[in-house]
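queue> pop job 88
queue> type: inverse folding (structure -> sequence)
queue> payload:
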């Protein structure tokens, strides 16, 4: 008999068919995240769980899925999964690194350009019929050439963002918890990167972009104190995880014009957005689109399936975060 697996969201047909060839697939068909009760009920008896970052996989879920041999997260982040509980039960957890690096880096630059050149603000003005015509001082933004890009987290995605800075004539500074301060790093095809402490990076960068995982140490990494250290002409961009930024503090800083603007793709309480951000013109808000290309989302699902098929076939997982 084919091993039973639970898939909590639809994936591309080509990926699903490959999974169905080897497994008996219980697919949740809803448009939104699988309800908690259904997750607990449907994971029972399954040998694999393919889930998304919107699914909280904690001790209760792992207890309900007593037969699980793998939890495959269709995301690079895995803060939605209790790794220690999975490890205690001998259940490997996998993620989907690398395949979304390029798409997320591209989208980060889309947000940087959108907020520094006031693209979203201008479109809202135009659609409202409020544009009165061209003038010399109308909706002036910030040119990127000659400015400093501050990259917080120089992992796969942070490095890919830094690589692209050369195309815009920006110099790059970075803060990374696994590299010594005062050193330099080289990114292929990009500028040299000066490593510096977070406080100095915030104080000297014209654009600060966040690329750290969500951990107890990075939750609210950007709080009131951090925002107060930034340049008044500086911009904050977040495509990592929502809780890395204290949204109450960000709404305050933007409202007080302590920073020039912000662009967010992720939020503390997704899909809810802090009400203090919604009415501000100097913030760009996107609905978690960082990896949202046809190619990338298909590759993410395919890698999760590869991990499931490997483990259920008696082999090691390809991309384990908790072996």
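queue> result:
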């Amino acid at each position: 008999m084919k091993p039973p697996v639970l898939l909590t969201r639809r994936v591309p047909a080509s990926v699903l068919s490959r999974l169905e060839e080897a497994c008996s697939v219980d697919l949740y068909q809803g448009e939104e995240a699988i309800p908690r009760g259904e997750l607990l009920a449907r994971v029972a008896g399954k040998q694999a769980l393919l889930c998304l970052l919107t699914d909280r996989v904690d001790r209760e879920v792992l207890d309900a899925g007593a037969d699980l041999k793998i939890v495959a997260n269709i995301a690079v982040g895995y803060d939605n999964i209790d790794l220690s509980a999975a490890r205690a039960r001998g259940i490997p957890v996998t993620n989907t690194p690398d395949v979304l690096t390029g798409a997320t880096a591209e989208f980060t630059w889309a947000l940087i350009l959108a907020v520094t050149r006031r693209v979203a603000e201008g479109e809202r003005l135009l659609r409202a019929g409020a544009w009165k015509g061209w003038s010399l001082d109308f909706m002036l933004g910030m040119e990127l050439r000659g400015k400093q890009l501050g990259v917080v987290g120089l992992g796969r995605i942070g490095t890919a963002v830094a690589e692209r800075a050369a195309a815009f004539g920006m110099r790059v500074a970075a803060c990374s918890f696994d590299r010594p301060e005062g050193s330099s790093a080289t990114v292929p095809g990009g500028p040299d990167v000066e490593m510096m402490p977070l406080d100095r990076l915030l104080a000297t960068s014209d654009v600060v972009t966040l690329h750290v995982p969500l951990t107890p140490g990075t939750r609210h990494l950007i709080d009131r104190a951090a925002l107060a250290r930034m340049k008044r002409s500086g911009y904050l961009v977040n495509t990592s995880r929502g809780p890395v930024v204290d949204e109450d503090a960000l709404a305050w800083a933007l409202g007080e014009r302590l920073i020039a603007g912000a662009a967010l793709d992720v939020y503390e309480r997704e899909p809810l957005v802090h009400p203090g951000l919604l009415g501000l013109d100097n913030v760009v808000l996107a609905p978690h689109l960082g990896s949202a290309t046809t190619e990338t989302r298909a590759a993410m699902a395919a890698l999760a399936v590869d991990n499931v098929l490997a483990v259920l076939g008696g082999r090691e997982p390809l991309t384990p975060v908790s072996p």
